[in-house]
Design brief:
Chain lengths: 101, 186
């Protein structure tokens, strides 16, 4: 176990999530991509804490912040999906970008 | 032993992460994402962060079950019986993702990381709690405020009928315009 391996794992998860967030048309799938990116960041933050500065708690606090961001992203994302679906009956980013007829 | 576990969890996290955008069924997609997060939590546990790892596991199980419900509510073809591709600009997204990974990996390999400073405390959870109630109190308060704001925002966004629908644009209606009138009829 080295810092580099953990960071490479985090980078891989981040890249997969980025691919999903850019390519998926469904808003819910797009949110899954964002969650994967945040998962990669969690791995990286925990690895930075353990391998670089275990004596301070800053790395752990960063993980707490990331977990909170994940939960809030999910909640706001679903609220936005609900709002667009109610207003326009769409669940895809391309349709949401169209002008209303 | 820990090295073997690291590789098992790492491969598991990446493979189930890839499956999220490969599978057809929305239920399977959700549980693939859950599996990816469970492997991430296992890596966090491997680093000695017992509390944070367990929090991630518990939170993700709940979150993904809720997500499965939303998937079935909103998405066309939730069961994946009719394979369809709902992607745009696949090649462009893939090349951006691969380029991002290449840049990050180059940075990870090339940067001269500093040496480890200090040793982990005997009880990292107690240290975290003391920090959150002490020097990191501002972080904790900001997180609390953000969560509270999110509660209000989500309710506002998701509600079908707000007070302007019920009391008019100037909020001056004597009675609320509700589909089912309540009250005692007085």
């Amino acid at each position: 176990m080295t810092l580099e391996l953990f960071l490479l794992l985090g980078a891989a998860l981040f890249a997969i999530g980025l691919y999903g967030a850019l390519s998926q048309q469904s808003v819910v799938m797009l949110m899954m991509g964002l969650e994967l990116m945040l998962g990669g960041l969690i791995v990286a933050a925990a690895a930075f804490w353990y391998f670089l500065a275990p004596a301070s708690t800053d790395g752990q606090v960063l993980v707490i912040v990331l977990i909170t961001v994940m939960a809030l992203e999910m909640a706001v994302g679903f609220a936005v999906v609900t709002a667009i679906f109610r207003a326009r009956e769409v669940d895809m980013t391309d349709m949401a970008a169209d002008l209303k007829e | 032993m820990t090295t073997v576990l690291f590789w098992i969890f790492a491969v598991g996290a990446v493979v189930s992460g890839l499956l999220v955008f490969r599978l057809d069924s929305m239920a399977r997609v959700t549980f693939a994402l859950l599996a990816s997060f469970l492997f991430v939590a296992a890596e966090v546990l491997l680093l000695g962060l017992g509390y944070l790892g367990v929090v991630i596991i518990l939170m993700m199980v709940m979150e993904m079950v809720i997500m499965a419900v939303f998937m079935i509510m909103y998405m066309m073809n939730p069961a994946g019986l009719m394979p369809m591709s709902m992607v745009h600009n696949k090649a462009g997204s893939m090349s951006i993702a691969v380029a991002t990974f290449a840049v990050l990996a180059a940075g990870i390999v090339l940067v001269d990381w500093p040496a480890r400073a200090g040793q982990p405390p005997a009880d990292p959870t107690a240290a975290l709690g003391a920090a959150l109630m002490g020097t990191q109190m501002l972080t904790m308060m900001t997180l609390g405020l953000a969560i509270f704001t999110t509660i209000i925002t989500t309710v506002l966004l998701a509600t079908a009928r707000g007070r302007y629908d019920r009391f008019g644009d100037d909020l001056d209606a004597a009675r609320a315009d509700d589909p089912v009138p309540g009250g005692l009829g007085r």
